[in-house]
Amino acid sequence: MQSPQRPFSFELIAKRGHARAGVIHTPHGPVRTPIFMPVGTLGSVKSLDMADLHELQAEIILANTYHLFLRPGTDLIEQAGGIHKYINWQQPILTDSGGFQVFSLGVQSGQKSGKYNHVRIGADGVSFRAHHNGSSYFFSPERAIEIQRAIGADIIMTFDEAMSDDYSKEQATQSVGRTHQWAKQCFSYWQSQNRLSKYGDYQALFGIIQGGLFPDLRKKSASYISSLDFDGIAIGGETVGYNMAATQELMDWIRSLLPDHKPIYTMGLGRDPQDVIDATLAGADMFDCVGPTRLARNGSVYEGQFRMVDGQPAFVSSHKHGRINIGNQKYAHDFSVLNPGCDCYTCQSGYTRAYLHHLYCTRELSYYRLASIHNLRTMLRITDKLRKWITAHDETKQKTSAKTKK
Ligand SMILES: [Zn+2]
Questions:
Q1: pLDDT for residue 333
Q2: Is 75 a catalytic site residue?
């Protein structure tokens, strides 16, 4: 079958070490990489509206298939004409497949299945009960793609088994086998639908590499997922983003197996500014995490500067994890901004730590917005600075000019 025209591509602009700068072209516009993607679980980045997201220069946002499927439901999103129209965001959107939430949020559905004893895993899919009302549902690979076609994001994901890092080798092997079988089914179903959303737009499908902390399984998974004609490659698993040392090691195992011409997405990574820097240096292009907004809501705001340390980019801060706790009494009389040098709306317009401390302690609603803007813009500014750092010293061009000199 001839592939339809693909209005999705990854243009590699520059490379520096393993770090890459590029542009992802989608039907709803370009995304410059490396990029941090704010998470809009229910079609909304918590406490922010679309004007805020434009202001902080978000280029792509994430929405969760599992949550949107349950509420408001795909019928309603279809009536609205798709997710872009429904949520009033005309730039690129990525949806996950729902796999991770089915495993992590679903509630007891009878038969036990290892750590995730609330779901029933079969070769054909997963039965689960919804976290908010206990209703029963079944997701198969084809169903996960069909739901994502109805939501209508620019980038969609294969349905995978969110395996736990405490799986035995035998359990992990079985799990990876199921993830590969489901990836193939998702791929075939996507092809059969001409790779189009229900609204006629091209939808890029990314495959997901699993394998836990077993090097041979990770390599096997990287080879298999890279062998299919997906538009991008994602790296999933419990470790990714939560244990950065293990995440970097994992990238070392599989990097040589990953295609150069596809974007690499480390799923759920980006809790701390340094995490995004480390993952970019390890060769990843796309990141998402609920961390920045969740931390903001809990009083934890980023403080520090993007600097060069021994020739490598780093987020330099005198505080642990590069964050301050705005609820701390010592900020009650601190009339400086959250992070001097920050270009976010909150810092630039002069909101002080003292005032934000007061808003946080009194649970005033404006606090959540102002702190979320600051934390998200910090992540987006870092990916912006990384992009500039990579393009300022492009090894691909240097190689070309070296060849020309010969
Ligand atoms: Zn700021």
A1: 98
A2: no
